Amino acid sequence: MNSLLGALAWLGDPVNWTGERGIPVRLLEHLGITSAAVLVAAVIAVSLGLYIGHTGRLSFLVVSTTGALRALPTLGLLVLFALWLGVGIGPVILVLVILAIPPLLAGAYAGVESVDRGTIDAARAMGMTEWQILTRVEIPLGLPIIVGGLRSAVLQVVATATIAAYLPIGGLGRYIFDYLPLRRFEPVFAGAILVTLLALVLEGVFAALQRLTVPKGVRILQGSPAARGGSGRARVELASGSPAATAHAQGASGPPQRRSDSVSAENSTSLPTQ
Amino acid sequence: MTWVLANIEQIWRLTLDHIALSVPPIILGFLIAVPLGWIAHRYRPSRGAILTVSGLLYTIPGIALFLSLPVILGTRILDPLNVVVGMTIYAVALLARTAADAFDAVSNDVRQSSVAVGYGPVRRFFVVELPLAGPVLLSGLRVVSASTVSLVSIGSLIGVSSLGYFFLNGLNRRFPTEIFTGIVGVILIAVVFDLLLVVMGRLVLPWAHVSRRRESSSRRAIA
Hints:
The complex is a heterodimer of chains A (274) and B (223).
Chain A: H1 2-12, H2 23-55, H3 60-70, H4 74-85, H5 89-113, H6 117-125, H7 130-164, H8 173-179, H9 185-212, H10 216-222, H11 232-240, H12 243-253
Helix pairs in contact in A: 1-9, 2-5, 2-7, 3-5, 4-5, 5-7, 6-7, 7-8, 7-9, 7-11, 8-9, 11-12
Chain B: H1 2-6, H2 8-42, H3 44-59, H4 62-73, H5 80-104, H6 108-116, H7 121-152, H8 164-172, H9 176-204, H10 208-222
């Protein structure tokens, strides 16, 4: 308990809130690294996932990337890239991008996949172009699941950016790796507390965002407020809107029941790969 | 390659350390998560609480969890127990949700039939619900196994011996072969564990892959 009090005292000390090693600067660095990596990964993975979900082509890519990357130790990849590309922010961002791609890809794919086939056929029958179907039907209806993929990606990247501070980069992990060798545990614990708080806050923000992105029509159809977005399956139901579509969507994105490597934006991809 | 041969003893020792850190969390996680998942499935009011808490525990970054546990458990900061307990927490957090979903997916007709032919609650759980939830639990366990094996290596950052040692030492010595050996070792352990789980699944749930094959062929017929 002493070390906890020490960490809290350290957190309360105004000295640690100023200067270029202060908490606000470290926090911004952490958020900067995280958002840079997630943005780059999103450009690649979300567009690819939407393409795969819309056309149904290349869907093996989703299953194979989520499966293969699960066992890959991020720390090993991080130090290997640092050796090859030189110590700096570049290799760190690269590894974080690689890490963020599978959940984003799976989320985008599962989001589009979850939309009721009947709805898409109806849109096509009304004369919508493929682009219109994607942007006005599939993306809005699948958005909660797409955001779910973003949520797992952000959490993994935030956690891994912490251990990336083993290399000389910024972020909240600095407090852990600067003071651990000195056996000064107050800043180490404080760093751990700060990173945990950051992860919890981001989790809350994205959970809220996920609820907000449920289209109004689906919410009305469902007859219940967005509060139902609690479990992965409820989200799939909300996004697809009809019982028949739910059964279909669960085959693709529900609990991995039929295929052992089933792609689920919720279960299979939200791994703490720090 | 010469480095690998010259250091085969150390590689083997660290591999054993890595396995010793990975196995208890996988087994303990399963033993704790299955009853929790069943409670979440059976008693609706508990569901939100169990799944929310496990979701939040899951959110804590690994290194932060390893460093916080000594404060809570009173262990020393370099104690391997921190890694084992931390990984067990992750395993439970991940599997509790899978288990709840798995028990939800058991057909209610089957459950009611078993009540009708006179199965008590305990026998119903072990003879009907658990086997039917088995395939989903197994796939959840495979995910947990892979992520545990991979995550144990970050314990090396706080001085707990595992194959992760090669990552840090390889970086210090600027020696990619050593890092590579560590990565390959971790992936090999993960693959072996996965195969073991699949084989165990075949033995314990012999019907699972038969029905899956039948189902996928019927799905193809529909498509």
